[in-house]
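[step 3/7] fold_predict: job queued, chain A
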Amino acid sequence: MASGTRYARALALLDAAHSEDPNKVTVNGRDLPYELHYAQKMTSYLEQRMPQASELLSLSIRAQHFRRWEVPRSSYPMTRPGYYSWRTFLKKRQAEQASSICKDCGFSAEEAERIAALIRKEDLKEDTETQALEDVACLVFLDDQFEEFEKSHDEEKIIGILRKTWGKMSPEGQAMALAMKMDGRPKELMEKALNG
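[step 4/7] structure written:
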């Protein structure tokens, strides 16, 4: 994992912004801002998925949901097109904000644009770093968000989402997902999605 001075400054600024998230999650008995927890989880999975990740990918991973709480899902229509519009807007916004921070920390315009392109998930399936970012996002969803998510949706929708998630992942990401510990209902739904 990268550790240069400009990298450390950019990481500190990203995490400072994550720390402003008013939404909290309890982790090991400590309340943490949710987006800081999410960013740390993303980094943890990146270290497993691609231990020698570049600084640019590492920062893109850390900024995946940059200041997302400022644009809640409820600010867009609660329809499929509304969801896609919200997601598209967030990717563009997060990419612009994170790349600006990186430029201010000494990354070149070209490097900052690469960070932005990774956050926007450009060239998924063709670009190994973009694919690693997608794998990590899917793994964090399965590990950290799925159990709560599945409680608010019907089985058919959940199985469809799991199949789409699986299809976005590389064989390496899928292998990591299969090695994940899942119990009860989440495990049952995952098995149905993969075997159906």
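[step 5/7] annotate
The radius of gyration is 17 Å.
The chain has a mean pLDDT of 91.
exit 0
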